[in-house]
């Protein structure tokens, strides 16, 4: 692992004017929902030199393998989307796996990118980094101001470590790295595993199976009262490219819709999308998870970005992708 002589080189001024379409971009986590959407967006925008190894080709938890890969492929920009994620059941039953894997992935990729002198890097955080009692809507200044949601603290601590890593690189090496904090995401290529899925894929799978089997009652976890702000992954992909080209600030920047719904309202929308017409029971003995809330998205909207996919349209798109794939057994977690 030999550091190139350009490690402390001045940042490329071309980054301020947008990325040349010949830029070699490494999308870490390209096989996941977010990574796939970002790769698709980059291709639509004319980027052709995309590095997108899957986990079989490059295990991001393996430090030596990651450093060797950077030395061989020399990416000029990095988008770090790779992470282990999950819904309320996953974060409450597998906190060690989430914390350990996410810390290793982040440290390995960020250290290797710094050693290679990568001038532009976007790290994706998560809304869970904000305090559980933050004022609504949640502004970026709320970071580090209070206690985290206990149920999701392991995931939050890992993401906060990534944010701090990016800030440390900016201070010590002068590289133009940034962090975006998206709200809850959904869309095609999500994980629909019954033990690991987040709220949208979990509900969609549950109602779809109930409709196909003629099941008359669906049981959902919690009370349905927590609120969720939901962003279609294609809108996030557009935001990521805009930020890579136009944003350069040490402060993380929120990405969301600025609107939220209760989980019970969301469940009704998913049921309508799937055409499930049976009864629904809410199991209040099961955890609700974070009470939720909305992000303050004024800073990214000031850059000219706004979401284009409504929640209703996004659910319909996601189900149109999910239904045939679930039947064919090609959906992740099916």
TrEMBL record:
GO terms for biological process: 'de novo' GDP-L-fucose biosynthetic process. This is GDP-L-fucose synthase. Belongs to the NAD(P)-dependent epimerase/dehydratase family. Fucose synthase subfamily. Its EC number is 1.1.1.271. The lineage of its organism: Bacteria, Bacillati, Actinomycetota, Actinomycetes, Kitasatosporales. Keywords: Isomerase, Multifunctional enzyme, NADP, Oxidoreductase. Catalyzes the two-step NADP-dependent conversion of GDP-4-dehydro-6-deoxy-D-mannose to GDP-fucose, involving an epimerase and a reductase reaction. Coiled coil: none annotated. NADP(+) binds at residues 29-35, 159, 182-185. InterPro entries: Epimerase_deHydtase, GDP_fucose/colitose_synth, NAD(P)-bd_dom_sf. Substrate binds at residues 206, 221, 228, 288. Residues 25-256 form the NAD-dependent epimerase/dehydratase domain. It comes from Streptacidiphilus pinicola. The record marks 126, 128 as: Important for catalytic activity. HAMAP family: GDP_fucose_synth. Gene3D superfamilies: NAD(P)-binding Rossmann-like Domain, UDP-galactose 4-epimerase, domain 1.
């Amino acid at each position: 692992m030999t550091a190139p002589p350009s490690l402390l080189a001045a940042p490329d001024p071309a980054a301020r004017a947008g990325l040349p379409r010949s830029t070699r971009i490494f999308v870490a986590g390209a096989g996941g929902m977010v990574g796939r959407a970002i790769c698709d967006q980059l291709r639509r925008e004319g980027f052709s030199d995309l590095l997108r190894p899957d986990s079989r080709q490059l295990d991001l938890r393996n430090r030596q393998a990651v450093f060797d890969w950077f030395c061989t492929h020399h990416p000029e920009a990095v988008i770090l989307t790779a992470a282990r994620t999950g819904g309320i059941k996953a974060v409450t039953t597998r906190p060690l796996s989430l914390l350990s894997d996410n810390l290793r992935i982040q440290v390995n990729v960020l250290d290797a990118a710094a050693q290679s002198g990568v001038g532009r890097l976007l790290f994706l955080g998560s809304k869970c980094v904000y305090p559980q009692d933050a004022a609504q809507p949640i502004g970026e200044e709320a970071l580090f101001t209070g206690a985290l949601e206990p149920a999701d603290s392991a995931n939050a601590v890992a993401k906060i470590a990534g944010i701090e890593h990016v800030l440390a690189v900016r201070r010590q090496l002068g590289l133009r790295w940034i962090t975006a904090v998206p709200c809850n995401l959904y869309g095609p290529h999500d994980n629909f595993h019954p033990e690991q899925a987040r709220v949208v894929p979990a509900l969609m799978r549950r109602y779809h199976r109930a409709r196909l089997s003629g099941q008359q009652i669906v049981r959902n976890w919690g009370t349905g009262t927590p609120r969720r702000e939901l962003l279609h992954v294609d809108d996030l992909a557009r935001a990521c490219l805009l930020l890579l080209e136009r944003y350069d600030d040490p402060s993380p920047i929120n990405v969301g819709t600025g609107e939220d719904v209760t989980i019970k309202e969301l469940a009704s929308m998913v049921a309508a999308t799937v055409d499930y017409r049976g009864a629904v029971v809410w199991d209040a003995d099961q955890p609700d998870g974070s009470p939720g809330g909305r992000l303050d998205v004024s800073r990214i909207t000031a850059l000219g970005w706004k979401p284009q996919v409504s929640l209703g349209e996004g659910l319909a798109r996601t189900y149109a992708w999910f239904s045939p794939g679930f039947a064919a057994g090609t959906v992740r977690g099916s």
